[in-house]
Amino acid sequence: MSNLHPTVSRVTDRIIERSRDSRRRYLELMDAEGERHADRNVALPCSNLAHGFAAMEQDKASIATRRGPNIGVITAYNDTISAHQPYGAYPPQMKVWAREVGATCQVAGSTPAMCDGVTQGTDGMELSLFSRDVIALSTTVGLSHAMYDSVAMLGICDKIVPGLLIGGLRFGWLPTVFIPSGPMPSGIANKEKQRVRQLYAEGKASRAELLDSEAKSYHSPGTCTFYGTANSNQMMMELMGLHMPGAAFVNPGTPLRQALTRAAVHRLAAITRDGNDYRPLSRCVDEKAVVNAAVGLLATGGSTNHAIHIPAFARAAGVIIDWNDLDELSQAVPLLARVYPNGAGDVNHFHAAGGIGFVIGELLDAGLAHRDIVTVGGDDLGAYAQEPWLDGEALAWRDAGPSGDEEMLRPVANPFMADGGMRLVEGNLGRATFKTSAVDPDRWTIEAPCRIFERQEDVAHAFTAGELDRDVVVVMRFQGPRANGMPELHKLTPVLGVLQDRGYRVALVTDGRMSGASGKVPAAIHVSPEALGGGPLAYLRDGDVVRLCATRGEVSTTADFTGREPASMREVELGTGRELYGMFRVGADEAEKGGSAMLALGGL
User: Fold this and answer.
1) Percentage of the residues of the chain whose pLDDT score is greater than 90
2) Which ranges carry the Dihydroxy-acid/6-phosphogluconate dehydratase N-terminal domain (predicted)?
3) Which end of the chain is more exposed for a tag (fewer CB within 10 A), N or C?
4) Residue 446 near residue 548, CB atoms below 8 Å
5) What one-character-per-residue DSSP string does 232-252 give?
6) 285-317, pLDDT tens digit by residue?
7) Residue 1 has what pLDDT?
């Protein structure tokens, strides 16, 4: 691309060179597997094949004779995750839409799907990150039946999309489309929700008042409307060209949502190996697509969880990206969106203002994204700089137009910030991620004595006792992948927010996670190496002065560790199935590589 920004070009070239051998090995494996599984009537003995279509009723003959393509569905449907509840109705509809174009469709398998919103601050959160590995493994189980010519992925939320993508990439000879269900309509104003949370943290609101507020925010089927990991997932699928264009943020249960899902099914029938427009997932997800995902994350102020997920799913495709790459891209990519918790409006307001189509158009025009990638929904990424609409009953696309609200969405020529707001900070405490896009610049540097904790409950107790009413850096250690599965620590957010509002200079330093909802408190998260195993955080003591500076890219201490022994982690707690995840904890690699046992032990 002639107008590609020099930083984007340089980082992409570096990733291509670094990934040369691993990417070659991956593509060779996918090509060989694609040839081996090209015809299920040859690859599968008759008894195996008969088992595979035994329950398919009117579609049996078509599958048996390969009269048309057979679409495999991997679904993360359940009723507990509001975003995934609509998926219960999808497979029966998809079978009808497949028959419209001479294809068939069958559910290949299901994956678990947990909601971080439900498990936040509970024991279940310690299963959260590793659920991504379980989802990837479950995806490969479903696709291992070798009955399919393309794949529909039904999943949206935090670990689900990265897990589906990692699993799908190991069957990368199959064309794959991700099909979202869309965000729920907007509930109460985000500022009101945040106000009640902080009142509750201060003991000024009752549990009943808090629950009433939360229920008015999270109130119906669909994705939660704040711009956290789930909605950042949808943004990335657009930037990588793995959705039908503009599918990310159309509400559930609308005619347009149904039309987009129908179009995805028809597209899955058109891009198989047997046609003249073959678009396997392995060729869609390349170095340029991975860079696009990172650029989109930075341009929209998305979830810091993707500093872990992007390296993980890239690795599954033989692509190696690290935090230096993200940091360098962040210096070149301007912040174009302010979506709650980085701004006042939610993803519905973002979509109404021009949404992903506007962002992609701006990034392409400025040379900040790669146009020339293989997408599932158009000739190149240019097809995604549009918005879908219904022309009568027909699905169509049109130019996204200018921003409808520059308090929410701005052009590259007038961004909210000149950079993408995700910084690498490093020093004698390790390497970490600092999300600056949600933090007031006068709090980008915090230097104060630290107070060390290992449990979120202990922070709350110290807060209630008044022990944190001062300038303080709260250090939460032994929260890394090997220690306890690297839970998100959002139980800390209201407490730290209250301290900050009282005028204290506070920050968080942790080897755990905070995600895209981390909000206004400065935080160095994903600190690597983690405390367990002798990382620097294990040597800190209460009162040591810690400095966190996003401007200089620093997380450090003035303490002298000479002669100190590392602190010991408390015993791993049992219950909620955590004891079954010991193999994931023992085998996990560092956050910068994705925090995965599966990828590490699988030789990827």
Assistant:
1) 86
2) 69-382
3) N
4) yes
5) HHHHHHHHTT-SSTT-TTPPT
6) 999 999 999 999 999 999 999 999 999 999 999
7) 46
Closest to 304 (Cα-Cα) out of 68, 601, 556, 595? 595
pLDDT tens-place string over residues 63-80: 999 999 999 999 999 999
Give the start-to-end residue ranges of the domains of the chain: 6-185+220-399, 422-569
Tokens found for residue 584: 């994931």
Helix (H, G, I), strand (E, B) or coil at 598: helix
Number of residues written out for the chain = 604
Model confidence band, residue 452 (pLDDT cutoffs 50, 70, 90): very high
Q: What distance in Å separates the CA atoms of residue 292 and residue 288, rounded to the nearest whole number?
A: 6
Q: How far apart are CA 265 and CA 263, in angstroms?
A: 5
CA gap 196, 209 in Å, rounded: 8
CA angle (154, 39, 52) in 5-degree steps = 55
pLDDT at 438: 80
Q: Which CATH superfamily is domain 422-569 in?
A: IlvD/EDD C-terminal domain-like (3.50.30.80)
Phi-psi region of 351 (alpha: psi -120 to 50; beta: other; left: phi over 0): alpha
Q: Supply φ then ψ for residue 243, to 5 degrees.
A: -100, 170
Torsion over CA: 266, 268, 271, 274 (sign): negative
pTM over 0.85: yes
Q: Is 287 left (phi over 0), alpha (psi -120 to 50) or beta?
A: alpha
**What is the rounded CA–CA span in Å between residue 395 and residue 265?**
13
**205, two tokens:** 């609101």
Q: Which residues are annotated as a binding site?
A: 157, 224
Q: Omega before 529 cis (within 30°)? A: yes
